[in-house]
Write a structure and sequence with these properties.
The chain is of the alpha+beta class. Among the domains are: about 90 residues, no CATH class; about 70 residues, 2-Layer Sandwich (Dna Ligase, domain 1); about 90 residues, ATP-grasp fold, B domain (D-amino Acid Aminotransferase, Chain A, domain 1, 2-Layer Sandwich), CATH 3.30.470.20. It is built from twelve helices and 19 strands. Strands 3-6-4-5 form a four-stranded antiparallel β-sheet, with helices on both faces. A hairpin with a 3-residue loop joins strand 12 and strand 13. The longest helix has 18 residues. It is globular, with a radius of gyration of 22 Å. The N and C termini lie far apart (about 55 Å). Keywords: ATP-binding, Ligase, Nucleotide-binding. Pfam families: ATP-grasp_4 (PF13535), LAL_C2 (PF18603). InterPro entries: ATP-dep_AA_Ligase, ATP-grasp, LAL_C2. This is Phosphoribosylglycinamide synthetase.
């Protein structure tokens, strides 16, 4: 896992409850790993060296399974499992589930409906690209997750702005404009959903389907509310599951959790993305299976080869809001938490952003202000409770003021 993941404690606690000894491998320099007493310090960018470190560790303490908590280590986990002869997705499938261009190419070849797409170099002239594409379109980085760098453009002028903004972001992340390509694809209208599933020998079991009741039409695609069970017709839900199964097979994903994002319109479901991991953030908190089994426990049981019988989600409706960042600045205060928690059906409000820290909204940002959780009798009631709780919250954000150079002023 990466040091900044929201999900560390959920997996560690699930392992502890199952009596499993979890060895945490963090994306940290060796010196910091030693200082923080991290068992396994790894450099996710140096896959070969990290696999070597994992294999060396396994000689002393053999592993039963190696899992990636985040997108950032899915390829590393695949290579490490391969080196140790453990069950996992192939490195090629894991790479395809991270690289949006490879994903699109394989989905198209494998029969999974997806947007028309093209790739361009960062050093290409945006005025020229603007004449080669159709509108509305969506500009995407190949590797960033969580909707970072994803921008809609409705005309050539908007495209040029979106292209330059994504280019600045990628260069700030260390990309070279001569070695980096981006994706431009048609915008697909419709409602958006997210499917949480588990693959066993290539067969997909749907764990739950989330509706996203807020319109996600751009120009940025910040996700907010997830509610389950889905209110879509059963026939549509079945078509979504079949679409995800087709996409999984096209990429070569065969085992473990999958998190898929789709759009649904009058033509049916369209694949946006699929990841070889479970849902991000703290969203899994609202999911329970069988007699109270959390998602992380389900994933760990599956990973170590246990036959998981109780895959059905509890009947109660549940929802979560990833609280969006309204603007850039320094977080100075959060007000109304008690009032939000007092809203009927709300089960928790967790503010994860730290006071006096910089807030960066999408498309450049990579985090949320926090999460609101709810459970209730129906999805509509859960959604209404989350919206009411969000209205109770007030965030005090100090906008950054440019410092003027007044030297020599009279």
């Amino acid at each position: 896992m990466s040091p900044a993941t929201y999900r560390a404690s959920a997996f560690v606690q699930a392992a502890r409850s199952l009596g499993l000894e979890a060895v945490v491998g963090l994306d940290l320099p060796e010196q910091l790993a030693d200082y923080w007493h991290v068992p396994l310090g790894l450099d996710f960018a140096q896959v070969a060296a990290s696999v070597e470190a994992i294999v060396a560790y396994a000689r002393e303490q053999p592993f039963v399974a190696i899992l990636s908590v985040d997108d950032s280590a899915t390829e590393l986990a695949a290579y490490a499992n391969l080196a140790l002869g453990l069950v996992n997705n192939s490195p090629q499938a894991s790479e395809a589930a991270r690289d949006k261009l490879m994903m699109r190419q394989l989905m198209s070849a494998g029969g999974a409906p997806c947007p028309i797409f093209r790739s361009f170099w960062l050093h290409d002239e945006p005025d020229w690209i603007a004449t080669q594409i159709s509108y509305p379109c969506v500009v995407k980085p190949r590797r960033l997750s969580g909707s970072r760098g994803v921008i809609r453009a409705d005309n050539p002028a908007e495209f040029r702005v979106a292209f330059e903004r994504l280019k600045r972001l990628l260069i700030s992340e260390g990309a070279s404009e001569h070695d980096t390509t981006i994706l431009v694809e048609d915008f697909i209208p419709g409602v958006e959903v997210a499917l949480e599933g588990l693959l066993t020998a290539g067969k997909l079991k749907v764990l739950t389907l989330f509706d996203k009741p807020d319109p996600l039409d751009g120009p940025f695609f910040e996700e907010t509310i997830y509610v389950t069970p889905s209110r879509l017709p059963e026939q549509t839900q079945q078509a979504i599951a079949e679409c995800v199964a087709t996409a999984s097979a096209a990429l070569g994903l065969r085992t473990g959790p999958v998190h898929a994002e789709l759009r649904v319109n009058e033509q049916g479901p369209w694949m946006l993305e699929i990841a070889g991991r479970s849902i991000g953030g703290l969203c899994s908190t609202i999911l329970e299976f069988g007699s109270g089994m959390c998602l992380e426990e389900l994933i760990l049981r599956h990973a170590v080869g246990e036959k998981v019988e109780m895959l059905e989600r509890e009947q109660q409706a549940a929802g979560v809001m990833m609280i969006p960042i309204p603007g850039a600045g320094i977080l100075k205060g959060v007000h109304g938490i008690e009032a939000a928690e007092a809203v009927p059906l709300i089960t928790g409000v967790e503010i994860t952003a730290k006071l006096n820290n910089q807030l960066v909204p999408l498309p450049e940002g990579a985090s949320y202000l926090g999460f609101i959780f709810a459970r209730g009798g129906t999805p509509a009631e859960v959604e209404a409770a989350i919206r009411q709780a969000h209205q109770c919250l007030r965030f005090e954000i100090r906008r950054e003021i440019p410092i003027l150079n007044l030297k020599g002023a009279s």
